[in-house]
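Student: Send me a single protein entry containing the residue sequence and its fold in token form, directly below this note:

Tutor:
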Amino acid sequence: MKELFKKITPKLIVNNLEEIVASLLFTVTLILVIVNVLTRYVFRTGIPWAEEMATSCFVWTAFIGSAACYKRRAHIGVDILVNKMPVSAQNVVKTLVNLFMVFLCGYMFYLSIVYLKRSYRKPTAILGISSAWVSSSLALCFLDMTIWSVVFFFRDLKSVKETGKVVIEGKEA
């Protein structure tokens, strides 16, 4: 067990922060759902706040998980036509797509802040806490995706300068 904890470094945690947070929130969701189902069948009464809390944790899991997938470039993309183009045209298209993603994610971050401000006064049904706690997952997700979009844009520009083509993590994009 000590060997496992020795492998856990601050760098490892930072590099996998989105995955760690999403995993923890999914675990909380799963535990709440299981406990609530068991209490309904065994004690014939559920935990009133469990469903709302599980739903909130699942929303957070979905958005933070989406940001984690974006960070790993794991979202599906259809690039059949782009891959048939000459390398110089591929570089232009991929760079423009990266630039577009910087603006799109940035704009989505802005819209999520607007939404967050509007949901601030609305309480949740059972717990009565501000809906902004749930809605803030949107803002955090799109902030994270905006930051990664900027990183990808500059990383790909550097790759084109050094190798003459967009190279993503050791393989051609």
